[in-house]
Amino acid sequence: MTSNNGKQLMLGNKAVARGLFEAGVCFISSYPGTPSTEVTEEAAKYDEIYCEWAPNEKVAMEAAFGASLAGRRSFCAQKHVGLNVAADPLYTMSYTGVNAGLVIDVSDDAGMHSSQNEQDSRHHAIAAKVPMIEPSDSKEALEFTKLAFDISEKFDTPVLLKMCTRVAHSQSLVETGERTVPDFPYEKNIAKYVMMPGNAKKRHPIVEKRTKDLITYANNCPLNRIEMGDTKIGIITASTSYQYVKEVFGDSVSVLKLGMTNPLPDTLIKEFALKVDKLFVVEELDPIIENHVKNLGLIVSGKELLPMIDEFSQSLVAKAFGKDTKESISLDEDIPNRPPVMCAGCPHRGLFYTLKKNNCTVLGDIGCYTLGAVPPLGAIEMTLCMGASIGALHGFNKVRGKESEKKTVAVIGDSTFMHSGMTGLANVAYNQSNSTIIIVDNSITGMTGHQQNPTTGYNIKGDPAGKIDLEALCRAMGFERVRVVDPYDLKQCDTVLKEELNAEAPSVIISRRPCALLKYVKHNPPLHVNEDKCVGCKSCMKIGCPAITVKNGKAKIDTTLCVGCNVCSQLCGMNALETAGREA
Prior knowledge:
The protein is an alpha/beta fold.
């Protein structure tokens, strides 16, 4: 990537990556998770920065810490639930501090556009006692990223850079600059970096003093600013909420815009409160700023006006303050819902059809295959967090015994298995539950946009890399029964599934077929419905393929979607589904 300077329109995530480049970051390790993924993908375009996909967020953060320890600025990125996985190193890194600057991107997903919960990552910053800064647009994303490294080194702490869906995936104008690479010598310091109890006890007071110093900094830093307007109303806000407040009120109210949301300032807030008649807080999700303001002894309104769920909008803020909303256009037509569905030719479809056909109880995991829970397949009955399918299956079978062993399975993707499925598999092998685990190997990390993982044989740049052999790994972990099936072959899937469920031993089935959307996957010619043979039984509809519809009582195939996987043809007792062009 070129490093041309000047003004550019950038996505928030791309602006963070540019900030990493200019800040002289040398090492980045991340695990993909929407809405954080593009930061690392964009940073990987700079040859000056080493970038990698790690197996999970904990490993990524530990690798970034090691690079910081070695004396080079480092970074890792994850979504909000990924920070849960990385919490173990984060909370102790707060005690050790850093050598070179270490910044951690955590991207929240208010509105749960692609997440299983709506947690507020500010709680992690508070609990870990590390500073958190929040940009409100792409310009600040670049500037705050660079400033975060200065804060990290000045206060000897990791710094959380909190992004969110709207900042990460919206565009605004940024001005780029030069790259500067600082270097910090590594010096052995057991008291600082070896966190056994005796040393940790001595580090905790340092953390508490650092928090006090950061509060002083927050009261006078460039991240937090007062924008005075009419003094009848004063609003304290941050991140995208600041943008909504400015869109609704312009300069007609006074605003305290917070760019550092942990630790929060005290003197600055009190000074602002004295300048306005009535004080409000506008913040997405939990009332963290509001509670802080109340603890300062100030009267403030917040969550009695605004919700604690879902993301905000300009209209929501306007309505909350009794202001008119801008005109919008809506369609009067009753448009039918379009539920999410697996893609045409998705390799997971045949497997889930087989599981449903055999009335299996399916404990699922995090990935695009979670769509196996929606009609018409409706196979998955549980999804909790990355890797939970295997651990949950073990507990389920230990409690219910033979009642469930013959009909209950765990389904987990290849990337998710590498992320956090191996420890669950080790538990099954070690504590010997008669469990059947299915690894759906589509040869890519599908849900977040086709990132490589340790099973694919390629790194983030697409170059050859180490490749983990799933079959050998499962056998090495104690599984004697390891089978591989092609999910396009329904008969094979059915046979192997029955055999493994009936076996009196733990087993692994690897359902292997590359994602149909991968550029290098070659498809068969699309199928065609021979209407003379089709009786309109709709058996082909049972797999829920978006390429198949019914028109005038007959099945119809959209040849622009069909990839010729032939799964539907295996369900047709009339042999009415043929390769296009074969009909008489």
